[in-house]
Description:
The chain is mostly helical. The chain has 7 helices and no strands.
Amino acid sequence: MALKPLVLGAAGLLALLLVAGAGYFSLRAGQRQAPPPHSLRPDDPQVLRVGARIYAQQCAACHGAEGEGQPSWRDRGPDGLLPAPPHDASGHTWHHPDEQLFAITKQGLAQLINQPDYRTAMPIYGGVLSDDEIVAVLSWIKAQWPPEIRRRHDEINIQYRQSLSR
């Protein structure tokens, strides 16, 4: 009879440890699965409506209505600046992870590459657009890419995030 309370107590303790362990691992899994704060959402129709509107107002004059960029975008002009690159599949936008695209748009390339004297015609949109608006524009741009380019960009994002966790 003296063993019965001991067995019940041990079983209760074991159950408590199992519940606590499951809760801990559930929280850890949830943290790993949470998207980074500036992840693009090219499949969200509401985000894309906002992004299309802002792109037309803020970006299309330089990058083109269809994201085609300016002619000779790889060659510096007489002012020493590079023309606006395309944001379609022919450009290099999709070669950069979401967080870098966000940082370039919000803070400028000079800050991202830590070269304060780097000159570019690209405006800095921090203080002009909210973080959500920047994500919307970049999401709209990504939504224009062919499926294979979008998949490759998704892989670039995964590789980038893995490099940060090392």
